[in-house]
Every structure is written in structure tokens, then in C-alpha cells.
Amino acid sequence: MNERRSRAKRVAGIAFRVLNIAAIIGALWWFLRGIDVTALGRALERATPWLLVVALLLNVFSQYVSAEGWRIMLGSRHPVPRGRLLRYEFSAQAASAISPGRAGELIRLWFLKRDAVPVTTTGALIWLEKLFGAIGLAILVIPVPWLLDGVPGVVSGCIAVFAVFMVVQLGVLIVIARRGRTERLPKFLSGVVSGMYPLREPRRVVAMLGVMLVGEAADVAGAVVVLHALGIRLPVTAAILTLFLIDFANMLPVAPGHFGTFEVGALYALDLMHVLPSSALAFALLFHVQQNLPQVLVGLPLELPLLVGRRRLREVADTPAEPGPEPVEHSPPDR
Question: How many CA atoms lie within 13 A of 118 on its CB side?
Fold first, then answer.
């Protein structure tokens, strides 16, 4: 019976992925049908090189902000030097850019386990990082339907539902982290709930929201710079909406580095702003490179030791750490 269920689950997972791939291919065909390849080449040739360099530097800054977010979340309970966290960030992002599945998350689990951070705690903090980032994006995108003309009602509805869902999720997790009785939970879940200790401190929650808002703003700035490099003059609100639709499309697990879903989100957003398809595709390609190239160039050399010990990496996912008693913090608040 268990074998049959596991086989059915495997088949359902494959079918879901195939449907996602088919949907993305169909969407790409819809946006790219009849595109002028010559016009695309001209649009890429016109791109201002120094602005593209600025966009790449903004991506590096965004990685620093993410590492700072991890430092805030880990706090004095699991102190890890800022420089080391930055290396972990680049390595994890590089793995996610070139590998399918959740390779980046597994690498982060492995790195932080070497720093005596339990796997369950790292897993909980990965969840929180994504949640805080989503709320930061929601804060930026909520006013867009009122400030930008031509936003369809369905997109405005998706923005509202997305924002409400993320805020409600944060509220529920705060209640669980503060009032949940870990002794009544299975060992693994107990470790995850214990790992959400940053939610028990309002100042840490506010700090995380602020840091992730800065990170999302840096990504918006990167989009604005790439648009200007291509001579596409759009307001900042258009860049925010573009980033939101890219992230929304990236929720579909299709290919490494979000290849395909990233382009569909960007093409749909710029189509709403009546940008020429060739210019929109040039933006999608260059912005995708801006979002991945620094991580790959910096992160891949840092991952080389992991390529030798892939078995140990797999063991991390299968071996939950003991949650243990919750330590009392005597260190001063993180700055």
C-alpha cells in the first residue's frame, strides 16, 4: 500500500511538472510569436554598458542585504560572521541558479550545520527569509494599481490576495512561535517551531522587515537601471509591477534559475505597458542575467568543496538535528 501511494505521488509530481513546463512553453510562444530577431539584436546592441555594470553592482548589494538578514535572524543564539554569511549567500544562490530543485537550500543547510546551527533551525529561517522578502515586495507593490494606469483587475486582485496571504501567514507564525508548546509536537516539528525564535522579538521582526524591504528596493532599482540601459522609459511603479509578476511567475517550479518563468513574467508585465516585444525580450534576458550572473561567478568557486562531498550534503536532508533545550541569551541585542 505504501509503495503504491509513493508511486502515485511520484507520478502526480511528474505530471504536475510536465503541465507547468507545457504552460510556460505555451506562454513563451504566445509572447514571442512573430518577434523580430533583428530588432532584438539592435535593442541589445543599444544597451548602455556602464548602466549594466551598475545593475550588476546592485545585485551584489542585494546579496549583502540578504546576508545581513541572516545575521539578524541568527542573532546571538547562533553567531556567524557577516563575511561568512555573505559567502553562504552567494553559494546558495549560485546552486539555485544552475541546479534544479532546492540545491541552494541544501547547501545553506550544510554550511550552517558546520557552524552548529541545527538543520531544523536553518529550515525555519529559510522559510522566514522568503516570507519577509515576500512581505517587503508586497509593501512596494500594493500602491501600484492606484499609481500606474492600465493594470488589469486580475493583476490588482492577485496583488491584494498575495499581500493578505503573506501578512496572515506572518501573523500565524508569530502566534505559533510565541505560544506553541513544542513538547507536544513530534521532534522535527518541535525543532522547526523552536527555530522560529526571531519571531518572539518585535525588534528583530521590524529589523528583518526593514532589511528585506531594502533588498526588494535594490532589485527594483536593478530593474529600473536595466530598463534605462535599453532606453525603455517607464516609471518606477512599472519596474515594481514587473518584479512582482516575475516573482509570481517564478512560483512555478519548472527549470533551474527560473528559466522560462522569469521571462514570461517580464514579458507579460512589459506587454501591459505597451513595450515593443523585441525590447521587452531584451529586458527579460538582461535582467535575468543581472539577477544570476554575480552569484554564479562568485558562488561557484565557493561550492567546489561541496562537489567532492555530495553524499554528506544528502545526509543533511535526511538527518534532523536534535532540537535540545532552548538556550537563554545573555548577549546584548544585535546591532
Answer: 22
